[in-house]
UniProtKB/TrEMBL annotation:
One of its GO terms (molecular function) is hydrolase activity. It comes from the Bacteria. Keywords: Hydrolase, Signal. The lineage of its organism: Bacteria, Pseudomonadati, Planctomycetota, Planctomycetia, Pirellulales. The keyword Transferase does not apply. It comes from Botrimarina colliarenosi. Residues 1-18 form the signal peptide. Gene3D superfamilies: HAD superfamily/HAD-like (3.40.50.1000). This is Haloacid dehalogenase-like hydrolase.
Length: 327
């Protein structure tokens, strides 16, 4: 009888583990709050039920779905592109920010601000067809290795977030990336990495033109910004590309503040729809990186202060995640 009882308990335990939709998340208040929210909005007849068509979840990318230190991964790609093109541009040896790029002085590049980063990124795109850019980005993602983490950049995705995306989709949510990163770069890998198709990616864009080349229709990328999908641009991007206000928004920095506000602040006194804001706080220097208020990459300061008054969940990476990266 005792053996049968132990076997039964083991069977129940195994079933419970198998049924856990977020196995890489440690049990605790954070995990419970996410599970409770999803249950509330998906329980038909319940006070918080939300129809499937309105179940929209938006996620930042850099520092939220994959790592972002010591520099944004798209910047690393753009820097490699600048180095590859340098022989055709001798003027870059004496022109900033390219001079610093060629000298491998990333600190000097960062010190020149976002304008310099944008210049580098646009040069990496300029005068290429969309297909040429996709091939270049895909080749880089398939080969380039992160300097500290020792794995390909495309493998520096967060296993707990992959589980959360799958869990949300299994419960009728449509998941979107809403990122300050380049929309064309994100679309190269988002579907394979996250299960998010290109049409569900919102990001910063540069201008493009259409033409026929030898009778073949092509899109030509231009060295000029079109839309910056960061900070206050994120709600605008959501409005223009998605057309529905999210039920859930997840970010990791002050660049996501306005997206979380747009998602969670009620429109009026009658608006009692359950909504959830989530911030990922990088607290794990051993397995990944630890940074917040003073970081030049992914600074989390104002949004962290606002989280408690808004009722946003703050994920403590060191405490809440049993695993960081996929094995």
């Amino acid at each position: 009888m005792r053996i049968l009882l132990i076997a039964a308990l083991f069977s129940c335990s195994t079933t419970a583990l198998a049924a856990d939709p977020l196995p890489s998340w440690n049990d605790g208040d954070t995990k419970a709050a996410i599970l409770d929210f999803v249950e509330a909005v998906t329980t038909e007849g319940g006070p918080g039920f939300v129809p499937i068509a309105e179940r929209i979840a938006t996620f930042d990318n850099d520092g939220c779905l994959w790592a972002e230190q010591p520099a944004y991964f798209q910047l690393a790609f753009s820097i490699d592109r600048v180095k590859a093109l340098a022989d055709d541009h001798p003027e870059w040896k004496t022109t900033e920010p390219f001079k610093s790029v060629l000298a491998d002085d990333l600190k000097a590049v960062a010190g020149q601000g976002m304008k310099a980063v944008a210049q580098i990124a646009m040069v990496a795109h300029a005068d290429m067809t969309a297909d040429e850019f996709e091939a270049s980005a895909r080749d880089w993602l398939n080969t380039a290795v992160h300097p500290k983490l020792g794995r390909r950049y495309v493998d520096c995705v967060y296993q707990p977030q992959l589980e959360l995306l799958s869990y949300l989709r299994a419960n009728g949510f449509k998941t979107f990336i809403v990122s300050g990163g380049g929309i064309d770069f994100l679309r190269v890998f988002a579907e394979e990495a996250y299960g998010i198709p290109p049409e569900q990616v919102v990001g910063t864009s540069i201008k493009a033109t259409y033409e026929l080349r030898d009778g073949v229709p092509v899109i030509i990328k231009q060295p000029e910004l079109d839309f910056v999908d960061d900070k206050a641009g994120k709600p605008v991007g959501i409005y223009q590309h998605i057309g529905r206000r999210p039920l859930l928004a997840c970010g990791n920095s002050d660049g996501d503040l306005q997206m979380l506000q747009y998602t969670t602040i009620p429109r009026n006194e009658e608006d009692d729809t359950p909504r959830l804001g989530i911030l990922l706080h990088h607290t794990d220097a051993d397995r990944e990186f630890a940074y917040d208020r003073e970081s030049s990459v992914g600074r989390l300061d104002v949004a962290l202060d606002e989280a408690s008054s808004r009722g946003w969940i703050v994920i403590d990476m060191a405490q809440d995640w049993a695993t960081i990266f996929p094995e």
